[in-house]
Design a protein that fits this description.
Chain lengths: 109, 111
């Protein structure tokens, strides 16, 4: 299956700081999603972005499919941004989402 | 709008006991349905997916099985639980092979 690597694995920020999370994948994809897992385990959809750039408030994402990577930008971070951020990709055919191991983000006051 | 439900939210079961986890989706028709498991250490792994009633595909060999008795109902089962079945089980849905949306999950502990 497609290999998904996320970096960094852990990140500690002070409130108000900006950050960039990276997702590299090993093959062409037809689906790429970013999720935020909250402390209760719920996976919150952030972006569905197999290619291009999207923005939603303080969050934005860019996927460069030809170079097999995606970036998630968090600006002016808040303590509520804490949690684990997952990148998940789906192959050119089929249905499985292959998840990276996530980036664990802690935003301190 | 679409809603996905899972129950129970938490479950503690002895080794060797049966298991039945349920997932239902509202507000859509003929969705693709998925079961994932998240073990300690964060990664999620697809267990089963279904593109229609009675159609189940298994991604990994294991002690579990899945069924889809109705269009918007997906059930994960086991006849005899193992310690290694402990984990966080998440159900998801999508329209065809597109964006997937996840339920709140069931936290299973096998003792």
């Amino acid at each position: 299956g497609i290999q998904v690597e996320q970096s960094p694995p852990d990140l500690i920020l002070q409130e108000g700081a900006n950050s960039t999370l990276r997702c590299n994948f090993s093959d062409s994809v037809n689906n790429l999603q970013w999720f935020h897992q909250n402390p209760w385990g719920q996976l919150i959809n952030l972006f569905y972005i197999p290619s291009g750039t999207k923005q939603n408030g303080r969050l934005s994402a860019t996927t460069v499919a030809t170079e097999r990577y995606s970036l998630l930008y968090i600006s002016s971070s808040q303590t509520t941004d804490s949690g684990v951020y997952f990148c998940a990709v789906g192959p050119g055919s089929g249905y499985a989402l292959n998840f990276g191991k996530g980036t664990s983000l802690l935003v301190t006051p | 709008s679409q809603t996905i439900h899972q129950w129970p939210a938490t479950l503690v079961q002895p080794v060797g006991s049966p298991l039945s986890l349920e997932c239902t989706v509202e507000g859509t028709s003929n969705p693709n349905l998925y079961w994932y498991r998240q073990a300690a250490g964060r990664g999620l792994q697809l267990l089963f997916y279904s593109v229609g009633i009675g159609q189940i595909s298994s991604e990994v060999p294991q002690n579990l099985s899945a069924s889809r008795p109705q269009d918007r109902q997906f059930i994960l089962s086991s006849k005899k639980l193992l310690l290694s079945d402990s984990g966080f089980y998440l159900c998801a849905w999508s329209e065809s092979a597109r964006e997937q949306f996840f339920g709140p999950g069931t936290r299973l502990t096998v003792l």
